Structures are given as structure tokens and as C-alpha cells.
Amino acid sequence: MRHKRESNVVAELFPLLVEMGIDPSEIERGHPSGGGRIDIYIPRYRLIIEAKASGGATQPDVVRAGQGESPRQQLERYLEAEVSAELERLSLAGGEHSRKAWTGILTDGRTWHANEYRHAWNPARRPTPLHSGRFSGTAEDLVGRLAQWLAGDPVGRQWVPADASKLFAEKAKELARLYREIPANIRRKPDAQSALWHDMLHVSGMSPRGGSAPDHLFVVHSLLIAIARMMICAAAGHTGGWEQSLRDGFASWTLDGPQGRASDILTSWGRSLPIGRLGPP
């Protein structure tokens, strides 16, 4: 790889990481951190990559004209911010800390500087060098080397992607179908809840338009309430308490009905809900 623009280096690194078996949804690009943006950040693998244009990684410790820090200092600024944030977050939540080390990589596509950093305060104090210099192997060789640097199991649960809507789209469709098929003999309660919900939106000036819009938004809003209750309960360590917390409010219709009720779908799906940032690692 040899590119004049950092964005091109990032674009070529992305498929290499996917080839390693990393889910594309877990690869964050442009993640805000430490007063800047990380070019590539994979939280569960504790990997931070700072990409530079051609020649930008040949002297990692040199501060260039117009820059306030060296490329390595920039990388370690991001790493310090993310390590500190995770340590603080887990301390507040009372969670245990994974000892998996962080990997920081600075590259322009030809020259690579990779270091291992402790998962501890001031991680940049004594990094362990993994590689420094040109890498002349094939793309397959590079994938193998990256896999060595990232050895070990990922931390926590599946990472929530920047656009999480796809995680919920299918469940929204299933809930909509169940809502349409609620038997007439138990239809009165959900209809009343939907009417009250619609009245609240109407009073607020946000009444949905279109014949099918109210029912669709009612189901989606119910799903969002259920997701929020699941995440709150999971963060507090009460993974089975979300149903009880959902009984007050218009979304409680998901708890009623015959076999195959909406809550059965939500329960099975909630077991694998990716809430790595909130739940225990």
C-alpha cells in the first residue's frame, strides 16, 4: 500500500481486518476521542490504528512543521483517552477489568509501528514493541501478522455499531405482525393503549400522518421502550427484570396475548442484545 491520502490507507486496511474474521460492524472509523478522531478503532479487540499518508510513518517520533505532536504521540493520546474512559466506566459500574492488552498501530501502508499497551492508567509509559519498520510481505502475510498482534479473545459482548437500526429492523416487523394479529377477544386493551399514545402525540403536535402510520409508529415506539428497559435492567445486573418494568405504560401490550406473544420474541432476542458498553464484560 502506498497512498498520498490517509483515507486511502484506511480504506485498504478495512478489508484486511474483515479477512481476519472481525465483524465489519465492530470496526469504527473516525471515532471521536482525545480531542480528535481515531482512524480505525475496534473496541472489543482493543485496537487503535492511526493512518498516515505515504511517508507519514517513517519518523514516528518527529514533530513536523505545523503539528503540535509526533504521529506516535497522536496515537497514544487517543489510546490514553480510551483506556482511561474504560477504566472509569467499569469502576463506576463495579465491573471487573479484562486484562487484555491494547494494540496501537501507526502506519502509512508501507511502514508499520505496532506496540502493545497495558490496560492500566498511563498505558503509554512502558509499551511493548511488536514491530517497527517496513513490511514487505503479501496481504495474506500482513493479515497473519495482525492476527498475532491481536491474539486473545475479544473483550465484552458484541459491539454496538454506529448505525444500530439493522439490529432491530426484523424484530420491528415481527412485532408489527403480532400486533395486527391480536385476537379480537383481547384487542380492547392494546387498542386503548394505542389510542392514548396517539392522543399524547396529537396534543404535542406530533401526530403521525397517513392511514397506517399510527399503528406502525406505535409498534416501533413500543419496541424502543422495551429495548431501553432491557438495557437499563442489564446494566444494573437484573437481566430478567425488564418485563416487570414494562408493565406500566402503553408498551405493556407486548406482555399480553396467547402463545407466541410479543414478549417471547423480545425475551429470546434480548439474551443476545449487544450492550457491551453497558453490561458487565
Radius of gyration: 24 Å
Q: SSE order, as H and E? A: HEEEHEEEHHHHHH
Please estimate the helix content: 40-55%
Low-confidence spans: pLDDT under 50, at least 5 residues?
Answer: 275-281
- SS elements, strand count: 6
Shape: elongated
Distance between the ends = 36 Å
Query: Major sheet, described briefly?
Result: 6 strands, mixed
Main features:
six-stranded mixed beta sheet; alpha+beta; 8 helices; about 15% strand; about 40% helix; about 280 residues; disordered C terminus
What does the model show?
It is a single chain. The chain is α+β, with helices and mostly antiparallel strands and 281 residues long. The chain is 41% helix and 14% strand. The protein has eight helices and six strands, in the order H-E-E-E-H-E-E-E-H-H-H-H-H-H. A hairpin with a 4-residue loop joins strand 2 (36-42) and strand 3 (47-51).
Topology:
Blueprint: H1 6-19, E1 28-33, E2 36-42, E3 47-51, H2 71-93, E4 102-107, E5 111-117, E6 128-134, H3 139-149, H4 165-180, H5 188-203, H6 213-235, H7 242-245, H8 262-270
Parallel strand pairs: 3-4
Antiparallel strand pairs: 1-2, 2-3, 4-5, 5-6
Structure summary:
The protein is α+β, with helices and mostly antiparallel strands and 281 residues long.
